[in-house]
């Protein structure tokens, strides 16, 4: 059992070594101010929304697009009602969007829906009508200045721009709070310093913008893995197109509140990361070594070491614990002490990460103070369930499944939740 304590110690050291560079990110995000961008030109945009049975929330998203401070005549909204069995298409049309309906039970997933939608837009409106395209999920709500702020970064030369991903429902429970802190940390402690240091940010699912040139170059949309957003990011980096980040463009996203649903979603993300590295890993390593691409190093280190080390730790500790119980090993206390010490260290680290995120973003978290504190306290539990999802994803087959959304609120209503 002493071997187990040595291995756990080595895994802890490897974790610290692999993620030491993110301590620099944290320092940069706390000590430096982001560059302020301005726009010389107001670009014309197409808004792309892939929706599957989203009749409850899609009208609120379209309304938030229509209520932007950006000139309405420069923004057109397109929705693909993808394999819908409800009134999503009718609700979206009533709200003012141009809607295309798609039925395909074999090519399932957001990537295929976006390919279909971009094809229809290019066919009917031409490939050069729009300067860029936004991608939103049907449950999103935009801050009133979202497009105006994104346009500033886009006009400054970034052909791909991601935004500040906030949450509609931080205060629902510990699961939604965990998601919220996770995405807020990604925005402010990863993407913000990446932008300031001149490397590439990472697209996070929704609320991003890409140029029509990239769309034409890709023949529309060509990313179909389980995490099409991360695949898109990696493809951009490999083609020397860094992803910009606009912190002043705020998007609100509904987070899951049920553990089973959350577990399935996060397992899908992990499987998607594995798919991306299976397809692009050699190219990323080559670009990192030959071209000195820090962005490739960052994308590899931000995902793979955590996945490998976490799975190795869980599997190895479980095997050793079971073996110790079966063989009645007399020094089981060493095993227990090693595991407990590791859990205490991990919990303390996650409290620090969650606490810094909550403290620095407290004005952007729209929930009562007590729920913010509770969210930080239970953040380690959220991450530990993520670790279990990692093991599940590695050893099982995962398929894309839709997430049901029910929180229909305006941006103003979300901001007022802080007072309740």
Structure notes:
The protein has 420 residues and is α/β, with parallel strands linked by helices. α4 (88-95) links the parallel β2 (75-82) and β3. The protein has helices at residues 2-18, 21-31, 58-66, 88-95, 110-125, 146-155, 174-197, 212-217, 228-238, 259-290, 294-301, 304-327, 332-360, 369-377, 379-395, 411-416, and strands at 45-51, 75-82, 98-102, 132-137, 141-142, 160-167, 208-211, 243-253. The protein is built from 16 helices and 8 strands. It has a single domain, classed as Spore Coat Polysaccharide Biosynthesis Protein SpsA, Chain A, CATH 3.90.550. The mean pLDDT is 89.
Indicate the topology.
Blueprint (H helix, E strand, L loop, with lengths): L1 H17 L2 H11 L13 E7 L6 H9 L8 E8 L5 H8 L2 E5 L7 H16 L6 E6 L3 E2 L3 H10 L4 E8 L6 H24 L10 E4 H6 L10 H11 L4 E11 L5 H32 L3 H8 L2 H24 L4 H29 L8 H9 L1 H17 L15 H6 L4
Parallel strand pairs: 1-2, 1-4, 2-3, 6-8
Antiparallel strand pairs: 4-7, 5-8, 6-7
Helix pairs in contact: 1-12, 1-13, 2-7, 3-4, 7-13, 7-14, 7-15, 9-10, 10-11, 10-15, 12-13, 12-15, 13-14, 13-15
